[in-house]
Design goal:
about 350 residues, single chain, 9 helices, about 15% strand, alpha+beta
Length: about 350
C-alpha cells in the first residue's frame, strides 16, 4: 500500500466498496487518466487477495477429491527415483460398461505421502481440471465468460478467466508412465490452466489445479511469476480459448462410441453433481462459499474441510445410485448407465 499521489475524492474500496483512502502500490505511478485500484485499509487490501488464494485452494481440494472418486488408471506400482515419480500401469480389464472405466484409487501405493498422492491424482489431468471444474470455478469466483460472454450477460464481475495451453519448464519432478510392457512414456505433454484477471485492478494470476504432477502445489500464483518460472511456451492462446472451451470440447464428445466419448459423458454428469452439491451445502449451512472464504483462518479451514467432505459424500452417493440402478436393470451392470 502507498500514500496516494493524486485525488481520491470519489474512490471506493475494491474489496468492501466503502470510501477509499489508499492506492495499491502497483497503481502508485500510473497516469491519473487510468483507473487505479484503491482500498479503505491495509486489511481490505490483504483480504481482496486472500479471497482468490483461498478460492483456489478450495477448488484444488475439490478437484483432488473428484479425481480420487473418478480415477481412471490401472496403477500397480509407484517408484520415486532421482526426484521423479514412476507410475507402472497394468493392462486394463475388459470394459463391459461405462462404470468399468473408473477404478479404486490406489492409495496404498502412496505410502501416506500426500505429495505423491497429489502428483498421481493430477497426472495428465490439467485438461480435466479446466473442463470438469468449470462450473465450480464459476460458482466460487463468479460468472464472467471472458472472451465469449452470453448475450445480455452482466460481465461486471470481480474476475474474468482465460484458458491457456502451455508446455512447462523447471519442473520440480517429472511424472513418468511405464506401460504394461515396460516402455517408458516420457513425453512432453501440454498442460492446461486458467489465467484469472482481477477486474478492478487488472492483476493476473495463474489458477493451476493440477500442478502437483510437476512438483508445484500452489493453486494460485501471480501470473508474471508463474510465466517466468513455469512456462516454456504458450501453445494455444487463441481467441476461441474462452472460459468454457475445454468443457465444451468434452461435451462435444459425449455421443461418440469410444473410450473418450464414454469418459467425457460420465464426467459431464458427475461434474454436475459437484456444483449441485456446493449449492446444497450452502443452503443447508446457510452460508455462501464466497462468504466462507473471508472468515477467520480457523473457521474458514474447518468449513472448507466440511464442504469438501460433504461434496465427496454427495458424489459417492450419486455413483452408488448409478451402480445400483445398473444392477437392477440387467443384473450384470453392463452397458451405458450415464446418459
Amino acid at each position: 500500500m502507498s500514500d496516494p499521489p493524486r485525488e481520491l475524492a470519489s474512490a471506493t474500496c475494491a474489496h468492501c466498496r466503502r470510501p477509499a483512502t489508499l492506492f495499491c502500490r502497483h497503481c502508485r505511478d500510473i497516469p491519473a487518466s487510468i483507473p487505479a485500484t484503491t482500498y479503505c485499509s491495509a486489511a481490505c487490501h490483504a483480504a481482496d487477495r486472500r479471497t482468490l488464494y483461498r478460492a483456489g485452494d478450495t477448488l484444488q481440494q475439490l478437484f483432488y477429491m473428484y479425481r480420487e472418486k473418478m480415477f481412471d488408471k490401472w496403477i500397480v506400482r509407484i517408484e520415486e527415483r532421482g526426484g521423479n515419480l514412476y507410475i507402472y500401469e497394468a493392462e486394463a480389464d475388459t470394459v463391459k460398461s461405462d462404470l468399468d472405466y473408473f477404478l479404486p484409487f490406489p492409495g496404498r501405493l502412496c505410502s501416506d505421502d500426500r505429495w505423491v498422492k497429489q502428483a498421481l491424482l493430477t497426472y495428465l489431468a490439467g485438461a480435466d481440471a479446466v473442463a470438469w471444474m468449470h462450473d465450480c470455478v464459476e460458482h466460487v469466483l463468479g460468472r464472467n465468460m471472458g472472451k465469449r460472454p452470453r448475450a445480455n450477460e452482466n460481465t461486471d464481475m470481480p474476475f474474468s478467466f482465460r484458458e491457456l495451453v502451455i508446455i512447462t519448464k523447471n519442473d520440480v519432478r517429472s511424472t513418468i508412465e511405464i506401460s504394461p510392457v515396460g516402455e517408458e512414456r516420457n513425453t512432453v505433454p501440454t498442460h492446461r490452466l486458467l489465467q484469472v484477471e482481477v477486474s478492478e485492478s487488472g492483476e493476473r494470476y495463474a489458477l493451476d489445479l493440477a500442478g502437483a504432477q510437476y512438483g508445484y502445489y500452489d493453486a494460485v500464483t501471480p501470473w508474471e511469476e508463474y510465466a517466468e518460472k513455469r512456462v516454456l511456451s504458450i501453445v494455444d492462446c487463441r481467441e476461441d480459448m474462452w472460459f468454457g472451451a475445454a468443457k465444451a470440447a468434452g461435451e462435444a464428445k459425449v455421443n461418440e462410441s469410444s473410450c473418450d466419448g464414454d469418459i467425457s459423458r460420465i464426467n459431464c454428469e458427475c461434474s454436475k453433481s459437484l456444483v449441485a452439491s456446493l449449492g446444497k451445502w450452502e443452503a443447508d449451512r446457510g452460508i455462501l462459499t464466497k462468504t466462507m472464504l473471508g472468515l477467520p483462518k480457523l473457521e474458514y479451514e474447518e468449513l472448507q474441510m466440511e464442504l469438501v467432505g460433504f461434496v465427496a459424500t454427495q458424489l459417492q452417493q450419486y455413483l452408488d445410485f448409478v451402480r445400483g440402478e445398473a444392477v437392477k436393470t440387467n443384473g450384470r451392470g453392463t452397458g451405458r448407465f450415464f446418459k
